[in-house]
User: Fold these one by one.
Assistant:
Number 1:
Amino acid sequence: MIRISHFSYDPGEHEAENASNSYLMSLIAIIAGLPLPLLNLLATLGFYLGNQKGTYFVRWHCTQALLSQLSLLLINSVGFWWTIAIIFADESITDRYIAYIIVAVLYNIFEFIATIYTAIQTRKGIHVEWFFYGRLSSLICKSDL
């Protein structure tokens, strides 16, 4: 699911730090705003917007971090509102609900671990592409070259 590849150039120390910080921003937001999935996305979006004029390496990794947070928001929002419907409405806990919550929790754990790993590798200047998000990031983020 994660692929390490060579970037078109070797990023400098400052670039590697900023790219790594894009992932760390989402981790801090997850810890601070765990019950509110929108907080994670807003923190990552703010960092993304703040680095739009940065180098390609930084912009690319900010884009990948933002895309992963966007899908996490969608998955967690469905689980959140489904749970609210069960608590406050006439919904009942079904096998489909339990299966969805298990998959959502597993996805969150995987994304958390992948984010930590990517932040560490990116800080070393190593380019890490996530399955699906990496290709989207390449399509969205235009190269300086």
Number 2:
Amino acid sequence: MKSICLIFTVLFLTVLFSCEEDKIDYGLGEYYEEIATVLNDSAYLLDANISVVNTNAYRRGEKSPEAGKRVLLMYSYTNMEIPPYDRAVIVHSVSELSTGELKLVGRKDIDSLRADPLRLESIWLGSRYLNMQFYLNFKSEVHSVGLFTDSIGLHKDTVHIYFKHDSNNDPPGYPVHSFLSFNLGKVLGNPEKKKILSVKVKSDNYVDEIYEFVY
């Protein structure tokens, strides 16, 4: 089942901050940092379903990730109004993230996949995306990850989801910080706040940790 596990390669990002609209104060006012979806060259949709448009001409002139991409967005608010967008912001940095999708496979296939440990820093639900921030012990081999569920529980109140990490037998190296964003919508549809998502992740002490979200 190796081919199932290699959903996408983790893109490593050296990022100094957490996300989920964290406030950061450098003495020049409040900055925010969170994951968003690109709408166009200058606009982004936050996971709270708030659209923001960039008023920073320098940043607008830079090449932006294409529409639909997930990014880590650092910005600050302005007092301007630029309809049809909800808020006008000054974008200070944009970093494209590794993204994947929840995959629907058989339960036996899920059980056959490797689940190497990692150090999870945070995991949260934003709109139809499951976002993760973690550290991998990386040296030289490509690591692969995937998010899986089977069809048995899709129509029940609780959907069981499994995060799988394959280190490809990478020898001990050094911790690398990364973000991931998984689109749940193609399998689960749009959030209706009617289901419980039970997400299993193997932690760095080899314990299966369970995280629950209302979807």
Number 3:
Amino acid sequence: MSVKAKKHLGQHFLKDENIAKNIADSLTENGYDTVLEIGPGMGVLTKYLLDRKFTTHVIEIDRESVEYLEVHYLNLASRIITGDFLKIDISKEFNDKPFAVIGNFPYNISSQIVFKAIANRHQIPELCGMFQKEVAKRITEKPGSKAYGIISVLTQAFYNTEYLFTVPPTVFNPPPKVDSGVIRLTRKENHKLPVDEQLFFKVVKTAFNQRRKTMRNSLKSLNLSDKLREDVIFAERPEQLSIEQFINLTQKIANDAI
């Protein structure tokens, strides 16, 4: 029995055992004893997670994969969640317990997985996984690069990011058209911002939506005072600003509105 990869689910099954083990080994075990694997498919990564000392849960939207796992991983059967990670109530599933997230993530929802982890960071101290290489690079990119953008800033505001290694298309069935990249996100000790987080998200997204413009022009829609817009930071382009500068800018905008 095997599972056929389904294009509409973005499935590309990893077939290289060494890479699967390396991904499983990228988890640090710091601050949690429970792990959730997203999209286990036929369990190539799952089996190495089960060898580690934490409790492994999996979530799978593909009914055929669920049936395969139930037959081949009997010791996992009670910890298989059938459903969509993007739609589940995390606090309800894990009773507010901390857990790490791992997986060979479907390319078409990988960014959304990161944003959901950010939204639930109080419960997710770590995330390790495989992304399209371009997305993996964007998440881990530093200021000054064209790849540095919304997902870079919003992730790095709360997590330390590491690009671990590149994975070629040849180790998948079916092979994707691009390289993949494995990254690790480790939650920062202080993962609460000293500013209004909704405003911070709004400032970052508004700035990068017109990334070729200076901050003075890209943030025009926020109706900032002329005095604030004279600040030297407004002569910069969004990709030039560090996380700390975005936080400071958010505070200045908040004060400007008072």
Number 4:
Amino acid sequence: MVLEVRGLKKLYRNHRGVSEMTFSLDQGDIFGLLGANGSGKTTAMKCICGLCPYEGDVSIFDEPVRDNTQNALKYVGCVVEAPAFYGYLSAEKNLRLAARYYGLPADETADAISRTLGNVGLAHVKNDRVDKFSLGMKARMGLALCMFSQPRFMVLDEPLNGLDIEGMVDIRNIILDLARSTGAAFLISSHLAAEIEKTCTRVGVMYEGALLETARMADVLRDYASVEAYYIATLGRMRGVTEIPV
């Protein structure tokens, strides 16, 4: 099992955050957390990546994140809230720093950088400063850093946030290509139902800090006209509403 989350809880002073979350991921899953802004998606991802304290249990590849963070995250790549890169450096130099961080041998670094930038469509701007990139290019740079160590599990928080249609299609295709070529599992958060539908193999509906329901995408699209309809129906069931358009 790639990820197991049991009874995850993390509440802030304003009582927002994550109040109850239990789910799991297997290798090859692309799991989409779908919810409105403020529903707890980012908080959940921070907990899963060991970036803040929490109650409950989170394990990645059977390693408990809280007790053995380094081992648990050994095969994980993540982009939470925003890509972390040095804007004053070029795309290539950012990845050279990543290579040093991961301890990649010098004779393998150039090929790894070339391969990664090629995979995200940034090879032609490898010598350009990242702070001069467009929003879509910065999103690709975030993915490049996330995938550079060839992780078996990737956590992507709102990877399409603020992108135009072409940018969304580009990032979606990169994720799908990675999933097909590497077999890696993905946990993706989004408030865009249509993109979750086009990208993910499983979906979970979040609302006010709670994970209300999870389902396989094939089952959702068999029973509902769209993921958007499934989301509305799930909220309706929570509220006791019986007549939900599907």
